[in-house]
Amino acid sequence: MKKFVLMMIGFTQPTPEIMESWMQWFKSIEDKIEDQVGFDNGKEVTKNDITELPMDLNAITGYIVINVENTDEAEKIARSCPMISSVKLYEVRPH
Q: What CATH number corresponds to the domain at position 6?
């Protein structure tokens, strides 16, 4: 098994239809999910400044760690996501 992280990009105010599609998607992959986290109130911290990050179409809104056989399976799961803007997919480097 390989481990992948799906970073969810984009926020819009959830409607009942959006929430239903997300719940169905989570249920369809629940046996592959190792961890999942949602984000709020982001900040970008640099050496000289701290900037509040808006919850908009460019926001990172959460991540899901999945365990699957290969990259093709991870890509299929990412494509099936009811994403707002996009899903960034990363393979986790083995320790």
A: 3.30.70.1060
Does residue 36 contact residue 29 with C-beta atoms inside 8 Å? no
**How distant is the alpha carbon of residue 46 from its chain centre?**
24
Query: Which domain does 30 fall in, by range?
Result: 2-91
Total residues belonging to the chain: 95
Query: Whole-angstrom Cα distance, residue 27 to residue 93?
Result: 26
Which of the residues in the chain have pLDDT under 50?
A: none
Domains in the chain: how many in total? 1
Q: Which two tokens stand for residue 87?
A: 């899903």
Structure tokens at 78: 């990412």
Tell me the sheet residues that pair with 87.
8
Amino acid at 37: V
Please report, to the nearest 10 degrees, the dihedral formed by the alpha carbons of residues 69, 71, 73, 75 taken in order.
Answer: 160
Give the integer Cα–Cα distance in Å for 28 and 95: 29
